[in-house]
Amino acid sequence: MLSxxxxxxxxxxxxxxxxxxxxxxxxxxxxxxxxxxxxxKESFLVDLAxxxxxxxxxxxxxxxxxxxxxxxxxxxxxxxxxxxxxMLAQVRSGSGVSELDWEFSLTEKGGNYARDVARRNGYAGPxxxxxxxxxxxxxxxxxxxxxxxxxxxxxxxxxxxVSDDMLFRLGPAFNSGKSMFLYGPAGNGKTLLxxxxxxxxxxxxxxxxxxxxxxxxxxxxxxxxxxLLGDEADRAKxxxxxxxxxxxxxxxxxxxxxxxxxxxxxxxxxxxxxxxPLQLKANGGxxxxxxxxRQRMPARDLLNRWIVPxxxxxxxxSLGGGVQLQVPFNLLIIxxxxxxxxxxxxxxxxxxxxxxxxxxxxxxxxxxxxxERFCQGAGVPFKAAMLDYLIDTHxxxxxxxxxxxxxxxxxxxxxxxxRFNELKVELTERLLDAAVHTYFVDLG
Length: 444
What we know:
Layout: H1 4-14, H2 19-24, H3 42-56, E1 58-60, H4 61-68, H5 72-85, E2 89-93, E3 103-106, H6 108-120, E4 129-130, H7 131-138, H8 150-156, H9 164-175, E5 180-183, H10 190-199, E6 204-208, E7 210-213, E8 216-219, H11 232-236, E9 244-248, E10 251-254, E11 266-268, E12 273-275, H12 278-281, E13 286-289, H13 299-304, H14 307-312, E14 314-318, E15 324-328, E16 332-337, H15 341-344, H16 347-350, E17 355-358, H17 364-378, H18 384-396, H19 406-420, H20 429-439
Parallel strand pairs: 4-7, 5-16, 5-17, 8-12, 10-13, 13-16
Antiparallel strand pairs: 1-3, 2-3, 6-9, 7-8, 11-12, 14-15
Helix pairs in contact: 3-5, 3-6, 17-19, 18-20, 19-20
């Protein structure tokens, strides 16, 4: 934990319009004061530094500290001492008395050593944190589900047409922190609703850049799924452990492309180290499996994968060499489908998913509200008479159901058609007919 002075300094530096980061500050660990405090073996850190020098060609002492995300005093200075004493690296250039300003490069012996080490473990990035440290921190970063209420959820759904009845059902399901099953026709915003709900989670969480277990490395931070909070330059001034990053609570979504291997530790043969599975990257946030039932595996097998994590709040992973990991499973899983639930799995399996919430087609009144809202957002003058024409001609007469996504798509289609034909962008029967005819397909 941070000292009182360090915490005060951290808050002063990060409080400027960074409320989410400030909420996460009590968990920020201090920078290690020596090699032992990193939780890693000296030999592991020496190997990592040699690999970084091999990959980068040469590094100044200051750059090596940045590449390792470790402080010079007490840690990198000791690593450099070993590397020089073992004649793995040499001073290439530099002036002054500080190693921070000296440029280091590998000797021939060091290059051969680096190649040998990389064949066993190719990871060459920021120093990882021990898996024990990750388990301890992740176990404290439970999403504050119970702090959410009706007002928070209504705020999260601002700009969407969500009925009070839907909010009454969705809110408690999300607030419970348990698994959730959303079902209903495609195009009614199940994904958007899930994304908005996850955005209501406050505060940042700590994510390590990488994790070490049994001498093996698991790359954890993923810029695709983790949004950084705060300023790294500010953090560097605070003597904090820069192996950890403060990120927004993740919202990770996968669809029909999901395969079972995505949920297990993946060994990257090119980089010769492990990549964390999706649910581990989603820890502390939300993991959504969209298009449930359309994956290239039986729905039963996919559900079976979650039985232990959902019941025990722990997940288990295997690495090479017989290394077994037990890590916290602190996330909400949302299953979403437009298929009929009873056609996917039997009731016994569905019982394992705590909440089942139907997202139905919008009513005509809701459809009208959505349409007008999208007109305003797209800068298309709204005409009630033209919306009456659209509903009467292309919905009632042909027995077409309303979908929440139709207004956005039809208006976008109308704009494209008008611009190409150099017509005024407005709601007219001609443009609405053209949009409908190029958007809908008669499936018989």
